[in-house]
Amino acid sequence: MYRPRTYRYDVKSTDLVSFEVIEKETDLFISAEKDLTQKAHSAVLNYRRDLEGYMKREPRFYSSLEPLEAKDNAPKIVRSMIESSYKAGVGPMAAVAGAMAESVGRDLVQYSTEIIVENGGDIFIRSARPRTFGVYAGERSPFTGKLAIEVGSSLEGIGVCTSSGTISHSLSFGKADAVLIIAKSAPLADAVATAAGNAVKSPDDIEHGIEVARSVEGVRGVLILVGDKMGSWGEIKLV
Fold it and tell me: How far is CA 5 from the centre of its chain?
């Protein structure tokens, strides 16, 4: 059943124009200096075509829970997923939401210096100023609505992605309410969030989950929430 994405109010920036782009399973919430709906939708169609075409040629790309090698004909978005999943030790689809967010976001950079693309809790950000995001860990979590992080400025673009073993539709073998990763790219953050989330079965595993995340090159910060317990490392600034 579709759940209204009310958490998107925590992503919206008052200094930017926000709009949604929806195409089949892809549901993006984008903030930019102007309305770029048509350009964003065109980018989504292009990247979905690349992904769907590759899945037809290489069915294991969709189903594998382990890293795969990229075929010579792999499109750019596929290669970004495969590279990120290899670093994290998970299947390539663990990076799909982050890869779509970043791919579309980087296409839009030529039209807007400030870009925020959110895709089911996975975010690509390119901003000249710090941005604050609320952390959603489920309606039962004591942290939801009370916890936010400030992400520093970056004109190179960074990824902020979240995985959950209790509220997300995405596959997770863990029990964390939220595992948030800040990394040099959104597909990497997405894949590592899955890997770290898989390692957390109880509050006692928070430290282990943090070690899993921080061991991956390119990860800048990790925040893990389980019940009323939390742990963090790196560039996590709570506000």
Answer: 15
Task: Give Cβ neighbours of residue 153 (< 8 Å, ≥ 6 apart).
Answer: 127, 128, 129, 130
Q: Where are the domains of the chain?
A: 6-238
Residue range 6-238 forms a domain whose CATH class is alpha beta
Taking every pair of Cα atoms in the chain, the longest distance, rounded to a whole number of angstroms, is 47
Q: Where are the alpha helices (DSSP H) in the chain?
A: 37-57, 60-63, 76-88, 96-108, 186-198, 206-214
Q: Give the pLDDT score at 12.
A: 56
What mean pLDDT is predicted for residues 150-176? Answer: 84
Give the Cα-Cα-Cα angle 50, 19, 47 (nearest 5 degrees).
5
Mean pLDDT, rounded, for 67-83: 95
Q: What is the pLDDT of residue 138?
A: 87
What is d(CA 72, CA 144) in angstroms, rounded to the nearest whole number?
A: 44
